[in-house]
Amino acid sequence: MNKFFFLMILAEFIASSSQMLLKKSAEKSYASVIKEYLNVFVIAGYSLLLVSMVISIFCYDGLGYMGTVVMEPISYVIVMFMARAFFKEKLTARKLIGMGLIVCGIAVFHLS
To answer: What phi and psi values does residue 32 have, to the nearest 5 degrees?
Structure first.
């Protein structure tokens, strides 16, 4: 496997982390609309999304368009585990089956 594969996983981990920050912000209530959108969680979340996007664009060079697009759904798997860890969300059988199908699809694409 090349370095771009692991770099893309890093980009998706960063994007998943940003989603956790945005969800944490959405759980709180704010006194004004300005404070709702200009707080540490939102600014950090969108900043991480920007970093993730830049890394993903860089990965197009090594993985190509299809390779990069196929790797993006790994963020669903990462988000599922992070939501379980940080927000105590349940992992149902349907979620686990879906996660398995995503990983199998990525493996089939990259191993063929």
So the answer is: -145, 165
Q: Residue 20 sits in which domain range? A: 3-111
Position of tokens 């694409």?
A: 109
User: What is the reported pTM?
Assistant: 0.89
Low-confidence stretches of the chain (pLDDT beneath 50): none
Tokens of 15: 């994007």
Residue % of the chain over a pLDDT of 90: 87
The C-alpha atoms of residue 14 and residue 45 are separated, in whole angstroms, by 9
DSSP string, 38-103: SSHHHHHHHHHHHHHHHHHHHHHHHHHHHHHHHHTTHHHHHHHHHHHHHH-----HHHHHHHHHHH
